[in-house]
Design a protein that fits this description.
8% helix, 17 strands, eight-stranded mixed sheet, Leukotriene A-4 hydrolase-like, M1_LTA4H, 279 residues, mainly beta, Immunoglobulin-like, globular, four-stranded antiparallel sheet
Length: 279
């Protein structure tokens, strides 16, 4: 008999994860952007730290993700995992048995007195594909853009990061990031990290690499792929304070975006100054 999907039962009401027991400390994403299928496909490589020695499972949040393989990177072997039933609000709970663990002994401590801390570090690789109906990914056809090129915009706010990659989708757990994303050669990409561009000879695509060494919560990550150009990069002085501004937009919309953005941002800053007396 199938069990109905259950909401999270831990201390975090909107997340299945337990970063107090096993925490993700670094996420590496290696993804291909597929506009034809409207999916991201690739793998997430997670560095995790076991906070409690008696806890033998890594629990992650997912939403609409097709998980097609989980393995440990060192030593390399397939890992046992369970993907729970789908809950409309919270997605599916992904439970991974950590390497070198006897599956018969998976007792999770119920109180702080039972917790024994350790420094066990694991690297877990998860192969996956997003859903074309992902609530976190907005796919625009080329007919919907001014430059006649497709556009992808992500939205990781609320609990939508789990619809982009398997993660502990809570602000209470922050991690460093690295991403390597393949896109069509005619398009650019923006990610919430410093980045560099690497050319790939295969299939007329470009691979972009991004690295963020400052810890961030999953919901702070965004991905934008499209025919975007850096239209203006200048230093503006707002109330005698220097501010570097860079505007990215489609080429056909550059003039309107530049003028509208600058006017609106100045209005916002003036209102902040007027209301609070500082920036």
């Amino acid at each position: 008999m199938n069990q109905p999907p259950q909401p999270p039962a831990g201390d975090i009401p909107y997340s299945y994860s337990r970063p107090d027991l096993v925490a993700v400390t670094h996420t590496r994403l290696e993804l291909t952007v597929n506009f034809a299928s409207q999916v991201l496909v690739g793998k997430a490589i997670l560095t995790v730290e076991k906070k409690v020695s008696r806890c033998n499972e890594l629990v992650l949040d997912t939403y609409g993700l097709d998980i097609f393989g989980v393995s440990s990177c060192s030593p390399g072997r397939i890992l046992y995992f369970i993907l729970g039933n789908h809950h409309n609000n919270f997605g599916r709970k992904l439970t991974i048995t950590l390497p070198n663990v006897d599956s018969a002994d998976q007792t999770v401590p119920t109180s702080s007195k039972q917790m024994e801390f350790s420094d066990n570090i694991y690297t877990i690789q998860i192969g996956y594909r997003t859903s074309p109906q992902s609530p976190a990914l907005y796919w625009l056809r080329k007919e919907q853009t001014s430059d006649d090129e497709p556009l992808l915009i992500s939205n990781s706010k609320l609990t939508y990061a789990r619809a982009i990659f398997p993660c502990q989708d809570t602000p209470s757990n922050k991690m460093t990031f690295y991403s390597k994303i393949s896109v069509p050669k005619s398009l650019n990409i923006m990610v919430m990290m410093p980045g560099s561009k690497e050319m790939s000879e295969a299939y007329n695509r470009v691979i972009y690499s991004f690295s963020q060494n400052i810890t961030m919560a999953p919901y702070e990550i965004y991905i934008i792929v499209g025919s975007l150009r850096s239209l203006r990069k200048s230093r503006e002085f707002v109330f005698d304070r220097p501010m570097d501004l860079e505007i990215w937009a489609e080429e056909q919309s550059r003039q309107r975006c530049t003028s509208e953005f600058l006017n609106k941002i100045m209005d916002i800053l003036c209102n902040i100054k007027k209301s609070y007396g500082f920036l």
